[in-house]
Amino acid sequence: MVGRKANAWAARDATGHLSPYSFHLRDTGIEDVVLRVMYCGIDHTDLHQIRGELTSNTKYPLVPGHEVVGEVVELGSEVKKFRVGDIVGVGGIVGSCGECSLCNSNLDQYCSHRILPYNAVYKDGTPTHGGFSSNMVVHQRFAVKIPEKLAPEQAAPLLCAGVTAYSPLKQWMGCNENVKGGIMGLGGVGHLGVKIAKAMGHHVTVISSSDKKRKEAMEDLNADAFLVSTDKDEMRTAANSLDYILDTIPVFHSLQSYLSLLKTQGKLILVGAPQQPLHIQAGDMILGKKTITGSFIGSMEEVQELLDFWAGKGMTTMIELVKMSYVNNAFERMEKNDVRYRFVLDVASSNLE
Ligand code: NAP
Ligand code: ZN
Question: Where does the record locate the signal sequence feature (predicted)?
Answer without folding.
Answer: none
